[in-house]
């Protein structure tokens, strides 16, 4: 499911953000999973992902999110299988980042602490959605 069918105002706000926040990242994931309505707040998105065990703690909705944590949230969204260390660590942020990089979804110039723009986070969502959802389809066939 594409997140772009959600609130135009929120998506525009995310696209214009120079740094993606935890609240915005959680909103993308929670909307894609149909866990919240499009008019829900970023705080609602954080709470629902925490309650579902997809993030380890309640965080400030405006706090910038590093790529390692963004990929962790996205990996939970798509149920990424990953390599051995990814599976052993249950997709920890460090190994989620490494998995996304290994799958060529993250540019080599980025490190786990990089905070990307909202546009880059939505682009990663789109590319990851296509990549991992097609991987699941290929496994079924």
Note the topology.
Layout: H1 8-16, H2 22-32, H3 42-51, H4 67-78, H5 84-88, H6 93-102, H7 118-140
**Beta-strand fraction estimate:** under 5%
Label the structural class: mainly alpha
Q: What gyration radius follows from the Cα positions, in whole Å?
A: 14 Å
Order of helices and strands: HHHHHHH
Count of DSSP strands: 0
Low-confidence parts, pLDDT < 50 over ≥5 residues? 1-5
Number of helices: 7
Helix % is 55-70%
Largest sheet: none
* End-to-end C-alpha gap: 20 Å
Shape: globular
Average residue pLDDT = 90
Entry summary:
This protein has helices spanning 8-16, 22-32, 42-51, 67-78, 84-88, 93-102, 118-140. The chain is 57% helix and 0% strand.
Keywords, separated by commas or semicolons:
globular; disordered N terminus; single chain; mainly alpha; 7 helices
Description:
There is one protein chain. It is built from seven helices and no strands. The chain has 141 residues and is an all-alpha fold. The two termini are 20 Å apart.
